[in-house]
Amino acid sequence: MRRPHKIHFSGCVIGQCLGDALGVLREGWPREDCEVYVAGPLRSWLQGQLDENAWSGQYTDDSQLARELIQSFVDCGEFNPADYAKRIDAIFVEDRIVGRGMTPHHAAMRLAADLSWDEAGTPAPAAGNGSAMRAGPIGLMFGDVRHVVQAAYNQGRITHQDPRASAGAVAIAIAVHLALRSKTIDPPAFVSQLAEFTATVDEGFAQSLRQLSGFLELSMNEAVDRIAVLGLEPGAKSDWNRISPFVIPSVIWSLYAFLNSPDDYAAAISTAIRVGGDVDTTAAMTIKPRRVIDGLNAQLASLIM
């Protein structure tokens, strides 16, 4: 295994921006429309066949807050939750945020009112994916996985105090940590490791996550039906068509998309988007393996920045 290089940080955030911008064009749309989009414009763009002047994708708060997390780490030389909280506060108060989520917005307003970083987060049952969507870079910041868990947990608590949201942030950060350090991905072992670390934060999330290995053996249609209701009370239904912003199904669907095509980023983000729902975030959270990040270059960055 090797330590991440600065190209991995840039590749991680570029890949996140790409998934975010590709997904936001169909955020909240039903599955049927997303399938048409994936089979048509998205495929053409990924194959370089769509006129980039006609492209209107835009990265959103998912990627902005991940970028601020990296910038805080660079400026402080470490993960400093108080500094990161100030950056979250500023980007909302100064109205620089794109597509603001209401849970982070309310936390930012509390930060602006001088609450400390560890008091401002919205308490349970606010368990959206806002803390997980920005957690990927944490997986690159530390060699010791225990430090990854603690930093992912703390950065998430700034906006979300619900342990399920914290567990989702840990799952994404650990997934990035493992993917960048592995030559090959063994899905059952990968899932087992993720569940082991998320269980330290929320056992219920870990129980849902442990089912992912079995879902990988199903068709996509069967898998999304199972994943979309994870963490819900028996008989409960989501207001969203397919994958909602609820942290458990959205994080696990992103992991499903990655593990279903661990060496094909285009296929992975297509899977993340094609089922409908909160697809900008599921695509943004879809993990980029080491081979993909190593190959991201200035040409790709110029298409989305």
TrEMBL record:
Cofactor names: Mg(2+)
Species of provenance: Stieleria neptunia
Alphabetically ordered keywords of this record: Hydrolase, Magnesium, Metal-binding
UniProt-annotated binding residues for Mg(2+): T60, D61, D62, D278, D280, T281
PANTHER family according to UniProt: ADP-RIBOSYLGLYCOHYDROLASE, ADP-RIBOSYLHYDROLASE ARH3
Keyword Metal-binding: yes
Family: Belongs to the ADP-ribosylglycohydrolase family.
Cofactor: binding details: Binds 2 magnesium ions per subunit.
The protein, known as: ADP-ribosylglycohydrolase
InterPro entries: ADP-ribosylglycohydrolase, Ribosyl_crysJ1, Ribosyl_crysJ1_sf
Keyword presence, Metal-binding: yes
Pfam annotation, one family: ADP_ribosyl_GH
Entry's Gene Ontology molecular function annotations: hydrolase activity; metal ion binding
Domain of life: Bacteria
